[in-house]
Amino acid sequence: MDLNLPSVGVQLKNARKSYGNVEVIKGIDLDISHGEFCVFVGPSGCGKSTLLRMISGLEPISGGDIVIGDEVVNDIPAADRGLAMVFQSYALYPHMTVEQNLSFGLENINTPRAEIKDKINAVSAMLQIDQLLDRRPKDLSGGQRQRVAIGRAVVREPRVFLFDEPLSNLDAELRVDMRGEISALHKRLGNTMIYVTHDQVEAMTMADKIAVLRLGELEQFGAPLELFNNPHNLFVAGFIGSPKMNFLKGKVDASDRTLLTLETGEQVRLPGTGFAQQAGQSVTLGIRPNELQPATDGALHLEVRAVEQLGSDSYLYGALSDGTRLTVHNSGQTVVREGEKVPLSFATDAVHLFDTESTLTLRDQS
Amino acid sequence: MAKVISFLTATRGKGRLHWTDWVSYAYLAIGIFLMFGPVIWLVLSSFKTQNELDRFPPRFLPYAQETVELDGFEDPLILFTVSRTSESEVAGETVAQTRRGAGRAEVVRLDDPETRIRLPAVDLQAIESVAFATENYTQLFERFNFLRFLWNSTFITVVATLLMLLVNSMAAFALSKYEFRGRTTVLLLVIGTLMIPQTVVLVPLFLIVTELGMFNSLWGVIIPGAATPTGVFLLRQYMITIPDEILDAARMDKASEWKIFWRIIVPLSAPAIAVLAILAIMWRWNDFLWPLIVLTRTENFTLQLALNSFQGELQTDWASLLAMTVLTLLPIAAVFMFLQKYIATGIASTGGK
Question: CATH number of the domain at A243-355, out of 3.30.160.20, 3.40.50.1000, 2.40.50.140, 3.40.50.720?
Answer without folding.
Answer: 2.40.50.140
